[in-house]
Design goal:
By secondary structure, the chain is mainly alpha-helical. The protein has 13 helices and no strands. The protein has two domains: about 120 residues, no CATH class; about 70 residues.
């Protein structure tokens, strides 16, 4: 837990800001509000009225998502169970203990893992991030990843095309370019697709596109080695 003095002024100010953005604020909106605040301060907001409690617990979830970023392939903090011995449970044990002490409630476990509470809020906030991570994975790995994360390819489509042709979540233009060009680059460079491209009637056009995509990634400062590019795309998708 970060060493920071908790003052009533900071807690009240944070409570006011969380109340203003509402209970349905997304990960990015909440992170902007809680930036610079400790987990203890965020948890302390919980004591300032029922109308703030929902926002406070969602902010706690956003804090955990920021410090323990969602993964499409590993156990996430919001998937841990009380008493389990997983590596993730061990990682979050200290912060979870501090959270419980701040809440000082006989209902700590319900506030943490109950329906609609902190872990559920964390899962909901992480959903767009997980969909981005899965979309950046090789095509043959996506189906298993969707199943492992209780998600569907349809949700990814709904997220990127909400009916108006506009993304449902605004992504930084640089990040979007790297991820979209990265997907094309990896597909065109895939050993699996190589014979398909060579036999394609538009082989020259596809090769020309690969050259342009490669130059585009270079201009963006993205790595071209497949494993490095994949990691770079995943790091941007987690933001």
């Amino acid at each position: 837990m970060e060493n920071q003095t908790v003052t009533i002024e900071r807690v009240l100010n944070l409570a006011e800001q969380l109340g203003s953005i509402g209970k349905d604020a997304n990960q990015t909106q909440i992170q902007e509000v809680i930036s610079g605040h400790s987990l203890i301060e965020i948890a302390a907001v919980n004591t300032h009225g029922e109308n703030i409690i929902g926002s406070s617990e969602r902010a706690v979830a956003a804090w955990f998502n920021e410090y323990y970023p969602p993964s499409a392939t590993e156990l996430n903090w919001f998937e841990t169970k009380n008493g389990d011995k997983t590596d993730m449970s061990k990682k979050i044990a200290g912060d979870k203990k501090d959270l419980y002490q701040t809440w000082n409630s006989s209902n700590n476990s319900t506030k943490w893992g109950g329906v609609g509470r902190v872990q559920d809020q964390g899962r909901a906030l992480a959903k767009p991030i997980l969909l981005e991570l899965i979309a950046a994975m090789p095509e043959d790995e996506r189906e298993a990843a969707y199943l492992d994360n209780n998600l569907s390819p349809v949700e990814q489509q709904d997220k990127t095309d909400s009916g108006s042709g506009k993304p449902s979540r605004t992504r930084d233009l640089y990040e979007r370019n790297v991820i979209e060009l990265g997907k094309l680059y990896r597909a065109l460079n895939s050993a699996e697709n190589d014979p398909v491209i060579k036999a394609h009637a538009k082989k020259k056009e596809l090769e020309a596109v690969l050259l342009h995509v490669t130059n585009g990634l270079k201009a963006l400062g993205a790595p071209l080695e497949d494993s490095d590019l994949k990691k770079f795309m995943e790091s941007l998708a987690k933001r």
